[in-house]
Design a protein that fits this description.
Radius of gyration: 22 Å
Strand content: 15-25%
Strand order of the largest sheet: 9-1-10-3-6-11
CATH topology of the largest domain: Jelly Rolls
Structural class: alpha+beta
CATH class of the largest domain: Mainly Beta
Largest sheet: 6 strands, mixed
CATH superfamily of the largest domain: Jelly Rolls
Shape: globular
Distance between the termini: 31 Å
């Protein structure tokens, strides 16, 4: 399995769709972070807001300020960290809380918003993805807090357009089970959006997602993810990646902000935390599988990284 698939698997994304929104200019709404999310959040739950424009155009930015993102039909905008955010035709208008505009769910379980001044129409689907922030590993840390993913052109565009069309048809049809179908479509669009974001990163970009694309760092990451329990050394990783030991160590650290062995330790412990959450395998067996010679050494490393012992972590996940 590749490193991105590994990281997505550990996140254990749960998708949900909570409304179909239609606005006419002028308009400006405020989505207040977790407030509209009625899905039960797990301990450490992080909400990734995910909006797909199906008609028109608008602007978006975080409520705390920063970059304003210009959006057009087919664009995806994502807020990766529970952030309250503004969307509208004019963000200088006094925003109306989106929660005040939500209409009761339709027959397919999808809530609606229909609001505005009667001008140019904009329509988008609003969904969210929930993950356990404590197991986010390097993925969420590599994402900006607000991210525009244009549909554009190139590989995968036809597939994404088909997903969008399927979502539009499902929304309009209001058939039983529609909200489940839309949630799965949102997860697929999220993953494809990530892949397109990685492909669009300019040369010189740092971070884990950029590292996946780098010829040498990406190879080292793939090796560690393919065999996390192997007794890796920087020398062996460098040999297989095609660089000298010092060159790989420097390149890896410059790009990911940590040396290879520190990354490997954190990834092993993330995998262990996932298994403790999902399996009843003994702690000793999990420790051995991820490369620890003793359960005691594993316990110490786990507590240092996650703040509690493996046994306590498992109990908290079962509560």
């Amino acid at each position: 399995m590749d490193a991105l698939s590994d990281a997505l698997g550990v996140l254990r994304l749960t998708g949900a769709v909570f409304l179909d929104a239609e606005f006419t200019a002028p308009w400006c709404v405020l989505s207040e972070g977790r407030r509209p999310v009625t899905h039960p959040l797990p301990p450490g739950g992080n909400v990734i807001f995910f909006h797909l424009l199906t008609e028109g155009r608008c602007k978006a930015r975080l409520a705390s300020g920063g970059e304003t993102v210009e959006l057009e039909t087919g664009d995806i905008v994502m807020m990766s960290r529970d952030d309250s955010h503004l969307m509208g035709s004019d963000l200088t208008l006094t925003p109306i809380p989106a929660a005040n505009l939500v209409q009761p769910a339709a027959a397919n379980g999808l809530m609606r918003v229909d609001h505005g001044g009667g001008g140019e129409k904009t329509r988008f689907g609003c969904s969210f993805l929930i993950c356990d922030e404590r197991l986010s590993g390097p993925l969420l840390d590599s994402l900006p807090r607000i991210l525009r993913i244009p549909l554009g052109e190139g590989p995968g565009v036809g597939w994404m357009r088909n997903l969008m069309q399927a979502g539009n048809l499902e929304t309009a049809a209001q058939r039983p089970g529609g909200i489940t179908v839309l949630a799965k479509l949102s997860e697929l669009l999220f993953v494809e959006g990530l892949r397109r974001y990685i492909e669009s990163l300019p040369d010189g970009t740092t971070g884990w997602l950029a590292g996946l694309r780098d010829r040498f760092v990406g190879r080292a990451l793939a090796l560690m993810h393919e065999r996390p329990g192997h007794d890796w050394t920087v020398d062996e990783l460098a040999e297989k990646a095609g660089l000298s030991r010092s060159a790989l160590a420097q390149r890896f650290t410059d790009m990911l902000g940590q040396p290879p062995m520190q990354y490997l330790t954190r990834w092993r412990l993330t995998l262990a935390a996932q298994r403790l959450r999902e399996e009843q395998t003994s702690i000793a067996r999990i420790a051995a599988d991820i490369g620890y010679d003793s359960e005691q050494a594993f316990n110490r490393a786990f507590k240092r990284e996650l703040g509690e012992t493996p046994a306590a972590w498992r109990r908290s996940m079962a509560a």
